[in-house]
Structure prediction request, 495 residues.
Amino acid sequence: MRRGHKAKCFITKTCRQSGISLEVAARAFPFLSLHVIMSRKVVRTSKFRHVFGQAVKADQCYDDIRISQMTWDSNFCSVNPKFVAMIVDASGGGAFIVLPLSKTGRIDMSLPTVCGHTGPVLDIEFCPHNDNIIASCSEDCSVMIWEIPDGGLISPLKDPVVKLDGHSKRVGILSWHPTAHNVLMSAGCDNVVILWNVVHGEAVVRIDSMHTDLIYSACWNRNGSQILTSCKDKKLRVIDPRKGSVICEKDKPHEGSRPVRAVFVSDGKILTTGFSRMSERQVALWDPNNFSEPLTLQELDTSSGVLLPFFDPDTGVVYLCGKGDSSIRYFEVTDEAPYVHYLSMYSSKESQKGMGYMPKRGLEVNKCEIARFYKLHERKCEPIVMTVPRKSDLFQEDLYPDTIGPEPSVEADDWFAGKNGEPILISLKDGFVATTKNKEFKVIKSLMATTSSSSSNRQSDSVVREQRESSALIPKIPSAIHTICTPDEPILKEE
Prediction:
């Protein structure tokens, strides 16, 4: 037995030094059982092995909120370091609320909402480059861009900054470009994907003949040079967004007929969640350069809820949140087989109707917080903190590499012309709050302005903002707007 133990240690050490997997070693040394050799994998070295989730105290939740009863498979929630937004029930149209993060406790029923849609709101997402800008889409076939004032709403917001019309059926998916300023992607039940230039209020790219059925999910890669979609026609497509052409596709990533979700993960690989023929939930990892077989395919359970994946590129951890589940599973994605390593699971008593995911720059780094979710219940929103236990209170550099900041690396016109921009990274060592306010006003001005006559825009932008805020000057708004806008570039809707 002692000799076998020494042999196992020798083999595992040799494998580690030479880069050979333990499965290969098991075939090369048949005199040792696979169980003995693979036993080391039970205690695989990882700094995220002991990550644990914990719900915040009751007084830090957002209570008495009527979360939307729609059955659409979206997150129903969007979060950034300033606000949390949730889709709520509304009579005679669609609405969502936007709360400052600090406004916890019981939420007054008379709280102002964003209520410009005439049909139920299906998806919302904050702009990654401006914390005061949020996009929404609805069953009324429209996409709207809203500006939320600092401190939250003091009256109902009915008029969007920009309204984007171009879909013929309800719009259910929104995604801002990760690096290009004011570029928004939307996908609707008309099987069309549209890329918008929000500044001009126009659809620049329209992909309308590629998808033959309902689009389940659509997302960008890290620098926004590719789009990944999953569709009801059981195909996974990697798309060049500006050319509107398919780079590669995979037929039936999962055998089941239930919805498939897909996201880009590290090194351009693709992680999908779906169902088997026997309706078992699965998670799979794919290499787009070789779509013939998955790198790994794991079965999880037999629940019916669609798994929503959230990937953290800084840590390589992917979180799977099921609609209707009461748990959050998390896995680490690595370059070693089986590539997707199960870490742990956060469980609670109540099921989730939706989930918001906080960007890295909004986390408390001094508490070793690596992720924060905003779980929607029937009548409340409950933050859940994911923490790596560490004894030291010092900044943990291995947990917080430089992360994506709010500064865009390329403007919309340049990106549509073919220019790519890598994410501009920031350090979280000294906190992020100090740099927020300097960038916000610039971003709001560039959103409100058009690209024509940029010099006059800078002079008149403050006048437009004052006129919007003053009810006494409302009759003068159309003439002021006429001086800086063209008819093809709607900025504010005139009643």
